[in-house]
Amino acid sequence: MVTNIQTQLLGRDVSFPVEESRFAYWLVVMRLIVGWWFLHAGLDKFLAWPFDASWFVGGAAAQTSLGPIVTLFADGALLSFTNVMVPLGQTLIGLGLIVGALTRLAAFFGAFLMTFFYFINGETGGWAHGVITGDLLGLLIFAMIATLGAGRVLGVDAYLAKTSFVKNHPRLRYFIG
Amino acid sequence: MSELTTIEKVGLYGGAALLLLGTVGMGLIEILLGAPHPVSGEGQVVHETLFSLSLRSYTILLGLLLMAAYGVSNLATKPPRDTSI
């Protein structure tokens, strides 16, 4: 089956055909790989507990473009919060993507975390290998998963979407899918 | 995408334009007009850049923030049009 995507971009007709089976296949593959990437990163930190993010949010990060924000989390209660939320967030984002539950919400927070990783890793490393890094590509894949609603393909979101709760609260569709 | 408001166009097109400017645009100018980037013995590219690295960072960051602002404002102001889910 081929579907014609009818759309415009910059005022021009840019309609194009998409082969649906390959599209569905690719969404699931992307979701599983990125999901495992984050689930592994989160579980790894829990297995080696305690996790200390002070090296990341303090120190060299202070000189980066996100320094004024992340250094607020460099000590005290906010550092303790970060030490829990980074591994917990990574684990939940990874689980969400793998089972396809609250996929768009998970992908949003994945992109949010990747923004910090991208700029802090890149700038502290002097962009030694250029500004297109694996972190930026990860960020963009999260954005792609959120845009396309990849959780509906072989995912829990396909079932969540049919519940009366979601039908009665249409804005929830922004978090699932 | 044709029924975008002006504000939405700024978020989507402006964000993508800045993201592409910071990555592809400045990168292309660096290649064409900039100093060469020899690779050191450790495999690192030695930067001698036309554009400061912080300028590229801020350009990319502003692009990503505009795109995120579009997403958040879209969520806040209207329900999704995709009613299949």
Short summary:
By secondary structure, chain A is mainly alpha-helical.
Account of the 3D structure:
- The complex is a heterodimer of chains A (177) and B (85).
- Chain A has 177 residues and is mainly α.
- Chain A has helices spanning 20-47, 54-57, 67-70, 76-99, 103-124, 134-148, 157-160, 164-168; strands spanning 2-5, 8-9, 12-13, 16-19.
- In chain A, strands 1-4 form a two-stranded antiparallel sheet. A two-stranded antiparallel ribbon of chain A has the order 2-3.
- Chain B has 85 residues and is mainly alpha-helical.
- The two termini of chain B are 20 Å apart.
- Helices cover 62% and strands 0% of the residues of chain B.
- Chain B has a domain at 13-38 and 49-76.
- The A-B interface holds A 7-11, 64-66, 108, 111, 115, 119, 122-123, 126-132, 136, 139, 143, 146, 149, 152, 157-158, 161, 166, 170-171, 173-174, 176-177 and B 1-2, 13, 22-23, 27, 44-45, 47, 53-54, 56-58, 60-61, 64, 67-68, 71, 75, 79-80, 82-83, 85.
